[in-house]
Design a protein that fits this description.
globular, 60s Ribosomal Protein L30, Chain: A, alpha+beta
Length: 227
């Protein structure tokens, strides 16, 4: 019975930490809240792992698991730093009125969502003039924050076959990368990928939907957290 009671205390403690971490404190910065949330989740997960493994000393293992989980949780994912927040603010200003979306993802990356009316015409991967000022400003922010890493993902609509769309999506990502490199961004910081028509964000049955699906997504993350 004592062992059961101790385990109950461990679970309650872990859950309390998780709730506190997820809720955060009013005076915490965004970075502190993100780190605290990760630590809380990690602590709860670590307590569960510690409690269900091993023999008779489950409560002690649960406490150790919670401590280990807190460290893993705090270190996991991507870091949303003050520099990342500054980049987001600059890009929001640069993208205002262009149709380019700027957001923070759930895993703490900066995301630029560039639709076809700004980026590429149907079946093409040469960058439109309207996209260049946005990329110029983006390249400037990357130069000021050299610790970030960039992932560019190209997409197409469902027009045509995979044999056409898959390389087209890669070429769109490559064209975006090459433009940034021409503006001084080190190529080693940039990775590219193409998803063809496999990840639509709108209905491919309409012209407007297909236009939304022809896009480029650019993700920026702290290099030390990048996968």
């Amino acid at each position: 019975m004592k062992a059961v009671a101790k385990r109950g205390c461990v679970w309650a403690t872990a859950l309390s930490v998780a709730v506190c971490g997820l809720a955060g404190c009013a005076e915490m910065s965004q970075t502190q809240r993100d780190t605290g949330t990760g630590a809380a989740i990690g602590a709860a997960a670590g307590a569960v792992i510690g409690g269900v493994t091993g023999g008779g000393r489950k409560s002690q293992r649960a406490v150790s698991g919670a401590a280990i989980g807190a460290v893993i949780g705090a270190a996991g994912g991507y870091l949303w730093s003050q520099h990342m927040q500054e980049q987001k603010a600059v890009m929001e200003q640069a993208a205002a009125g262009t149709g380019v979306g700027v957001s923070q993802t759930d895993d703490n990356r900066l995301k630029l969502d560039i639709p076809s009316d700004v980026s590429f015409d149907l079946g093409r991967y040469d960058i439109k003039p309207a996209m260049r000022p946005v990329l110029d400003r983006f390249a400037e922010t990357l130069a000021r924050h050299p610790v970030t890493a960039v992932t560019i993902v190209g997409h197409t609509d469902s027009t045509g076959t995979d044999a056409i769309n898959n390389p087209l999506s890669v070429n769109r990502a490559a064209a975006t990368r090459d433009y940034l490199v021409s503006r001084g961004v080190v190529s080693q910081r940039i990775s590219i990928d193409g998803r063809g028509s496999r990840e639509p964000v709108a209905d491919n049955g309409t012209e407007a939907g297909r236009a939304q699906n022809r896009r480029v997504e650019i993700f920026v993350a702290e290099a030390e957290r990048a996968q």
